[in-house]
Amino acid sequence: MHIFTKSQVEELQHLFTLFDIDGDGRVTVSELSQRLSAIGEDLSPELEDVLTAIQHTKGDQGLEFTEFLNIVSEGTSTASSDDDLHEEFSSIDADGDGFITPNELRRALGSTVSTPQV
After folding, report:
1. Measured between alpha carbons, how far is 115 from 8 in angstroms, rounded to an integer?
2. Whole-angstrom distance between the N-terminal and C-terminal Cα of the chain?
3. Residues facing 27 on adjacent strands
4. pLDDT tens across 61-111, in order?
5. Is 0.70 topped by the overall pTM?
6. Which of 90, 91, 74, 94 has the alpha carbon at shortest distance from 4?
7. Is the dihedral of CA 64, 70, 74, 75 positive or negative?
8. Which of 58, 79, 65 is closest to 2 using CA atoms?
9. Over the range 12-24, which residues count as b (16 or more CB within 10 Å of their CB) and which as e?
10. In 62, 78, 79, 98, which residue has its Cα 20 to 30 A from 68's Cα atom?
11. Would you tell me the crossing angle of helices 102-109 and 82-92 to the nearest 10 degrees?
12. pLDDT of amino acid 79
């Protein structure tokens, strides 16, 4: 299991809230699908299976932040290479300046994200 720094937890919390469209503290398969579609990605069958399993075993309607952290933690040991991460970052960093601005993030997430959310 990966131990996150306070800063990493804060960043992951922010990311989680971007996916939590209705602000109920849970990310559902539908919310995740909507956000991924907005940036041109599909919900992988593996991630959909994880979310569905959580819904079935706990009887809830989505992934809570602590569950999200556990999944991210498990994924860090098999994370993509630095090249893959750089490629993803570059796809969002439209002007190539090495920074992702709120406008670039908003564009990547789609028009459903308002300025205060970014």
Report:
1. 22
2. 29
3. 63
4. 778 898 888 877 776 554 445 666 777 888 888 898 988 888 888 888 875
5. no
6. 74
7. positive
8. 79
9. beeebebbbbeee
10. 98
11. 100
12. 46
